Every structure is written in C-alpha cells, then in structure tokens.
Amino acid sequence: MSAESLSARRRRTGRIVGWVLGSILLVTLCLTAWVGIRGFLAYQHLADARERAGNAAAALADPASAAGLIREITTDTSAARELTSDAAWRVAEGVPWVGPQLVAVSSVAAAIDDVASYSLTPLASVAGSVSLDSIRPQNGAIDLSAFSELDGAASESTSGLAAAASAVDSIDAAPLLGPLRDAVDEVTDLLSQAHVAADALNRTTALLPPMLGADGPRDYLIVFQNNAEWRSLGGIVGAMVLVHTENGQITLGAQASSSDFTRYDDPVVPMTDDEIRLFGRQPASYVQNVTQIPDFTRDAPIVQAMWQRQTGTTIDGVLSLDPVALSYLLEATGPVSLPTGDELNADNAVQLLLNEVYLRYEDPRQQDALFTAAAASVFSSLTSGTVDPVALVTALGRAGEEHRLMIWNAAPDEQSVLDGTTLQGVLGPVDPDDAEFGVYLNDGTGSKMDYYMQVAAGVESCTNGESTLRVALRSTAPADAASLPWYITGGGNYGIPPGEVETVAYIYLPENAELVSARLPGQEEAPPLGGGTDAGRQVLVWTTQLAPGAEITLDVTVTTPDTDALTARVTPTVHGVDAVTVCEKR
Fold it and tell me: What predicted TM-score, i.e. pTM, was given to this entire model?
C-alpha cells in the first residue's frame, strides 16, 4: 500500500472515529438533557406532592377529608413516576455517582405513587360516606355500620403504606447528595406518619365494634389511677366506673372506689416468685396496689378477679385513665358541671382532683363522691353527641403516647389487635428492635404528697459500650408541708414525718444489659439498693426520702445491649417527666 493510500485510509478512520465519538457525545448530551429535564419536572411534581402529603396523617384521622387530598397527590405522583421510569432514565441509573441519585429519585417517586394511586384508593372510595361525625356518639349510642365500611379499606391502606415505607427506608443514603438525602429522610418520615395514622384507623375499625357490643353485650371497668400517690403505672387505683355496651349503645353502670374493696388474705390470682420477692403479695390482694406491677397485661386480670369477688359479675375488659388523661378529654368535651357546683375543665381538672379535693374534704367518702361525679359528668358529655370528634381522637392519642390510657380485653384475639402499641401497657419497649430502661415510681408514705414531686429521667450517654441512666427526684412541697391535712401528708402512719416523701423506685435494666455501677453524683459512697429480677430483667430497688425542697439524683451505668435505640420509660406523673432522651445507635 502506497504512502498516499495509507494516509487517506488514516484520514477516513479518523473521520469515522470522530463521527462515532461525536455521536456518543451527542447522545450523551441528549441523554443528560433528557434525564435532567425529566428529573427537574419530576422534582417539581414530587415537591407539590410532598407539600400536600404533609396533611396526609391528619386527613387519615378523618377519612372524609382524605378523598380530595388523595386525588391531588395522585396527579403529581403519577406524573413523577412516569418521568423517572423510561428507558433513558434506566440507562442513566447505571452511571457511576449519578446513578444512585437517580435510583433514589425513581424509588421515591414509585413508592409515593403506589401509596397515592393504590394504597389510599380504598379509603378514598369510602371517604364520601364516612367521617368522624358519622361515628360521633348520639344519645349514648354509636352507629357501628361506619366501621364495617372502613374495615377493609383501612387494612389495605395500612399494608400498602407499610410496603412503601419499607421501600424508601431501604434506599442506600450513603452516596446521596445532602439535599437529596434530606428529601429521602423527609419522605420516610411522612410515610411513617401516614402509616401510623392508617394503622391506628385499621386497629380501631377492628376492635371498637366488638368492644361496643356488636357481637353481644359487654361490660368494661374503667379504673382511674391517682397520680398523687404513685404506683408503677401511674398511681393507686381509686375511682372505678362500669360501662355496659350493646349494639353501639353505651350506658354507665355501677360506680365504686378502692375503699369498697376488701384486703384479701391471699392473692386473687397466682403471682410469680419474682413478683412476690419484689412487690410482696399486695398487688394481687389489695386493689390500690394492683398497678405496682409495671405491666397492665398482668394487672388488669387482677382487677377482673377482684371485681368478680366483690360483685359476683365477670367483666370483659379493663381500661385505665388518670386525671391528666381526663384533662385531655375535657379539651374535646369542653367544661362540665359537677353536683358540687364546680366547673371541671381541662385547666383545673388535675389540680382539683389530685390536690384541692383533699384540702376541701377530710372525709374520704366525700373525696370519692367528687371523683365519681367527675367521671360520670365527663362520660355523659362524651356520649351526648356534643364532643368534638377530631379533638377526641387527638386527646386519646396523646393519652396513649404518654402511657396514661391502657386497654385490656379478656378475649385474646381482640387483645392481640393492640400488639405493638402503648395501649397494652406491657412491660418493655413497644418496638422489639429497641431496648428500654424502666423507672417505675411508688409512694412509700401512704400519702398524696406525690402531687408535689417532680422527676427527670433519661439516657444521658451511650459510649464505649456503656450507657448511663440518670434519675432525678425533687420535692416541690411547700416549706410548711407538715401542716397540710393528714390525708395529704399521710400523718406519719408509715414512719415518714409529715411533709416528707418516701419514694420506692423500681429501676428495670434493659434486657441483656449488665450493671456496671450505680452512684449518687458528688458522693463517694454507693447508694443502698435492693434488687431482684422480673420477666428476665434485672431490677434495682432505690428508696429515697425527701424533705420539702430537697432533691436527689442517681446514675445507673450498664453495658449497652445490642439494639437500635435505648430509651427510658418512666411512670406518668402529675407534672409529666422532664428530659426523657433517646440514645440512638442506628
């Protein structure tokens, strides 16, 4: 081949290579432009959907308001999904660095579109005929037909939202740019909130009809825990109200107080050896001490057995509330009038029922009369049809989150509907992947002085394989607390000087954790602690005695168990609990 021919061939080859490279560059530019434009448009649709989805959890609390919202979201999510699922987008997902960003965007778009187009559609189809107003009590009755309409739709929506939340949660966030990572986290939170709301609706539609007597008459005992005299789950069992339900009709039955109950010589139900060593036999022999055991699934059957012995009748379940939860309900009902002439409202309920009543009346029978009148008045308002249904759902949700509302059904299949919720009041964390300290407070004074007690408790640190729980107790009782009525101070009946407060704290270590140390900050000597085990967990017993204005702090350090998060659960008190923290290990 001549030099001239070789040169011409090289020129042709160069032109071909240039054309090929140019074509590749052109295709790449076109692909980049195509993906970029579609990505920008998809982002706009997802941003619009995200803004609307911020109201999703609230809308699910009232299905009738969800229909329009679902249609609006679906328009945007479908467009975003279409824009991020064509062949060009799929090719670009394989490009290093850029690919993970695109995969995250398309995954989020697909998950949200599945929710909007499929998971929430069943709810939208019944939303026009069902609202919270349709299940508002009218003349003491609730129309149960609304629940049957919602039942299947709520179940489908819950399953779909759980799948979508799982899909988004599985996105690898490590290679994502900061803004995209934040957006994925936000969508994860939104889906989680919507799933919680749908799950609550699903459980409600499954459980309320049988509890309201859809399958036959039911009798439930509502017990009110008195936080002015601490027990592990809140306070001593005081007033009680029997509620009868049948075909949605709700009527108030017998009312009683703890003073009506006998102190039994022997436990009314068998107790474990561990329980007896920790608590003695009183939780199952004296009704005021039932909630000393920090597990409502163990306490409620004791209440059922005691009620049967006392009245000869068998109840179908037990619900527990405290005056703080009652104040939340009063936000939904509005003020109620009492036979005493008092107006009971959300602002004064706690102070009136947990302190002023003892300042006003020395006779326990008069105190009990005020409690039962308050319970009856609130019940009447709840069932009269004037209650704000949205506010009622909010109040019940808040009470449940704070462990102030607990429910136990004697029927195991109905009780299982509450699995994984705080409403069961079960010992241990709600999330099985988490671990939990338990700080369960009990009065040792025989008084109502816990109205003046404040508690702060939380996981202070999680480092080097160890975690530290700090518990601080403080008495805010007035300096002249000894001059308060004997029913408040206890009158020294249990050896505690009037005005001072003895607290017995059962501190449950997390499962599989081992105690490293327990100390009082600033003091060299270790505090005297008792102990035992319960449900396979080590328990420390810390007894304190505080004069007015005094405070004390305990630090408990343990080996950190293998868990996603370590939390602290504390007895719900009059004033709430300060600084409960979560030690995240995710």
Answer: 0.83
